[in-house]
Amino acid sequence: MMPSDDRKKSRVTLLDVAQHAGVSRATASLVIRNSPLVGAKTRAKVEAVMQELGYVYNVGAARLRAEKSRTVGVIIPNLTNPFFAELLAGIERVIDSAGMVVILANSGDLTERQDVVMRRMREHGVDGVILCPAAGTEPAMLDGLDEWGLPVVQALRHVSGRTDYAGPDYIGGVKQSVDYLVSLGHRSIAFAVHGQVHSAYRERIEGFCAAMHGHGLSDDLIVKVPEKIGDISASADLLFRQERQPTAAICFNDVIALGLSAGLFDKGMQIGRDFSLVGFDDVTDAEALRPRLTSVSTAPETVGENAATLLLDRLADRERAVRRVITPTELHIRQSCVSIADIDA
C-alpha cells in the first residue's frame, strides 16, 4: 500500500520503513548500518522502501544520532571579499587538525538565503556551524538553532549574547587610525562606509565617533559609498561634497580604500601626497597598492582559528559558559598617509 499524501508530507521514520517493508525496526537499522547480519534479499527490500518513502535525509539523521559526521558548516555573507578567504583559512587550519571537514556556504548577506542554507546544513548533518550573521539576523534565529541542538559560533558579527563569538576589536582599530591621523596634524577626517548595518558596522562607527570626540574633533564626516569597487572609485567626489573638506579618510574596509584610491587618482590626487587614506582589515591587496596602503590589521586568520576553537570546545562540552574572544587589532603604517604640514606645503 502506497503512503498517503499526509504521510509523504510528514517526517518518515525508521519505524515507517520497517513496517512498510514488513521487517522489524532493528532489522531496518542494521540495513542502514550496512550490517552483514542482514541477507541480500531483505536488504534490497528495505532499501527499495527507503527510496520509495523518501528516507534520504533521515538516514543521515539516524547516523548522526549514533556518531558524529565530522563536518562543520561555515556560512559567510560574501565570497568576493578577500577578507573572508583569510578567515576561512584560519577556520580550516583548526578544523583540519581535528580531523574534520568544512562545508562552506554563502548567504549573500540575506537573511532569507541564510535560513535556507542553515536548513541544508542541518539536513547534511553538520556537527556545528560557524556563522557570520547576515545583516538583519534576529537573536531568535540563533535561539531556534539551540532548539535543533545545533551548536553555533558567531564570527565577525554578533546578534546574541547567548552564543559564543569570535571577532576583532573594531572599536580599538578605528581609534588607532584616528589617533595616527591626528598625530600627523589632521583635524578634518572622514569615515567612508558602505553596506548594511550590523554589529561590526555599528562598532566601527562607535569607535570613530568616540575617538574623534576624544580629540575634541567633529565626527560629522561619515560618508556612505556604493558597494562595488568600480562604483566606489566613481564616487570619490562624495568625500568633498561635505560642508568641511576632509584631508584624510578612514575606510570601513580595504575594498573601499582601494576604490577611493583609484577615484582620487582619477581626480588628479595621490594618496600619501595630496590626501591621507587608511584602510581596514589589511588584506593581502593592501600591500600590492602603490603607494602601499596603511591599514588596520584585524587578523582574520586568527579570528577564524578562534571561532573554530570555540566550536570544537562547544562540541566537547555543550554546557560550558558562553565565551567571547576578541582579537586585538594593529595599525600597519605604510605610505598612504601624509602629514598635514606636507599637504599644505
Question: Could you give a short description of this structure?
Answer:
It comes from Neorhizobium alkalisoli. This protein has helices at 5-9, 14-21, 25-32, 40-53, 56-66, 82-97, 111-123, 139-148, 170-183, 199-214, 229-234, 254-266, 285-288, 300-316, 340-344, and strands at 71-76, 101-106, 128-131, 152-155, 165-168, 189-193, 222-224, 248-251, 276-281, 294-297, 324-327, 330-332.
Characterise the protein shown here.
The protein folds into 3 domains: 62 residues, 434 Repressor (Amino-terminal Domain) (Orthogonal Bundle); 126 residues, Rossmann fold (3-Layer(aba) Sandwich), CATH 3.40.50.2300; 143 residues, Rossmann fold (3-Layer(aba) Sandwich), CATH 3.40.50.2300. 46% of the residues lie in helices and 15% in strands. It has 15 helices and 12 strands. The chain is elongated. The N terminus is likely disordered.
Give structural attributes:
alpha/beta, 345 residues, elongated, Peripla_BP/Lac1_sug-bd_dom, Lambda_DNA-bd_dom_sf, DNA-binding, 46% helix, six-stranded parallel sheet, LacI family transcriptional regulator, disordered N terminus, repressor, 434 Repressor (Amino-terminal Domain), Rossmann fold
